[in-house]
Amino acid sequence: MSDIRIRKIEGTWVVRSGGAVLGESTKVLELSEGDSAPVQFFPREDIAMAMLDESGKSVEEVGKGTATFFNIVNLSSTTENAAWSYEAPSDALSEIKDYLAFEKLESLKVEQV
Predict the structure, then answer these.
(1) pTM
(2) Per-residue pLDDT for the chain (113 aa), expressed as one digit of tens each?
């Protein structure tokens, strides 16, 4: 397993899907691993979970736990497997339990505001 670092990042962060705001938070955590781009994780309490449905996809990741994927359902579209969460993370990722990360997609924006 690569060197995993998790830190709280400053400021207010927002995630939008097709223009709709899915969530806004000042409690975002950033996971960095090796040379991979950092990933922002939002606390579930700050996400409109009514717009997310479990997709049925899950991936076992060595040293991390099982990633459970979610579809984002808007009025006009469904973005499949657009978010993921570690429901029972390994000890190394225990800080991000009950947090969600979002794929980097054209229709999905994660940004600091």
Answers:
(1) 0.94
(2) 468 999 999 999 999 998 889 999 999 999 999 899 999 999 999 999 999 999 999 999 988 999 999 999 988 889 999 999 999 999 989 999 999 999 999 989 999 99
**What are the φ and ψ backbone dihedral angles of 93, each rounded to 5 degrees?**
-110, 15
> C-alpha angle with apex 79: 74 to 85, nearest 5 degrees?
105
Q: What is the CATH number of the domain that holds 107?
A: 2.170.150.40
Looking at the structure of the chain, the number of domains it has is 1
Cβ contacts of 74 within 8 Å, gap of 6 or more: 17, 18, 20, 51
Residue 40's domain comprises: 4-112
